[in-house]
Amino acid sequence: QVHLVESGGGLVQEAGSLRLSCAASGSTFSMSGMGWYRQAPGKGRELVARISTGGYTLYTDSVKGRFTISRDNVKNMLYLQMNSLKPEDTAMYCCRHQTGPITYWGQGTQVTVSS
Q1: Which tens digits make up the pLDDT trace of 24-34?
Q2: Phi first, then psi: what are they for 32, rounded to 5°?
Q3: How far is CA 87 from CA 62, 68, 100, in A?
């Protein structure tokens, strides 16, 4: 059983920065694809960024150039550095762990960007 715990969210002013972290336990972390997703009130969940076992990254268009996803396979940690934050980035951010067909989700951390 994989357990994911996110942290680092909070309230920040527009143009500010936050760094989200996701700690994975019970996981073959280095062999798993990881991603950050977000869900704003009244909207569906959307992919923010993902990173493969080999370090290949993919970002949704709205965060390209502002957000950076990274992983530490020694510490079993996933990160999301978020810069130049906008009010439309306000959402619950969750990390996802995937090994083959099996997917696990964390509970999420709230990010609120004020204008």
Answers
A1: 998 788 889 99
A2: -120, 140
A3: 12, 18, 35
